[in-house]
Amino acid sequence: MHDDHASNQPTWIRDTPSWLISQTALIAQRIVNDALAAEGARRYHVAVLSALAEFGPSSQAEIGRRCGIDRSDIAAVMNELEGQGLIERRRDPNERRRNIVSLTEAGQARHAQLDRIVVAAQEALLAPLARDERSDLAEMLGRIVVHHHQPELESRQE
């Protein structure tokens, strides 16, 4: 970091990865949230539409787990998306208490639109980095996330 803002910060702040990751996360959330809000969407909307586009019809609970959306919030997100005609919920014929959620044609189109918006937001966020640096950053952050999710995943499987 070579701007005036960085030079006025304590070295500890400039050199501590956890601090920098936290600050970057805040900036990333602001950029993405602002871009989505301009289109009347939220991160949860993109997450759910992306999960359905990638994995196909799934139970509401499974989508919540895949997207990291709390059980208490997933129904509200589904209601919003269903109200916009982007998803369809049907009772699972094998398990009457469970809904199977699928994308509608409008949901597929909305997913494509929101994907373009998120890609543009990523470009804005990562503007100071070269292409290869962006790939390296994503790979390194991914390794950190996977490493710290391993114990959580192993305890779920028991």
Structure description:
- The chain starts with a helix and ends with a helix.
- The longest helix is centred in the last third of the chain and has 27 residues, at 131-157.
- It has a single domain (4-127), classed as Orthogonal Bundle (Arc Repressor Mutant, subunit A).
- Strand 2 and strand 3 (95-103) form a beta hairpin.
- Helices cover 71% and strands 11% of the residues.
- The chain has a three-stranded antiparallel beta sheet with strand order 1-3-2.
- The chain is elongated and about 60 Å long.
- The protein has helices spanning 4-7, 11-15, 17-37, 43-55, 60-67, 71-83, 105-125, 131-157, and strands spanning 58-59, 87-92, 95-103.
- It is mainly alpha-helical.
Q: Which strand order does the major sheet show?
A: 1-3-2
Instruction: Name the overall outline.
Output: elongated
- Identify the CATH homologous superfamily: Winged helix-like DNA-binding domain superfamily/Winged helix DNA-binding domain
Q: What order do the SSEs take from the amino end to the carboxyl end, as H and E? A: HHHHEHHEEHH
Beta content: 5-15%
Q: Biggest sheet, in brief?
A: 3 strands, antiparallel
Give Rg in angstroms.
19 Å
Share in helix:
over 70%
CATH topology: Arc Repressor Mutant, subunit A
CATH architecture: Orthogonal Bundle
Give me the secondary-structure category.
Answer: mainly alpha
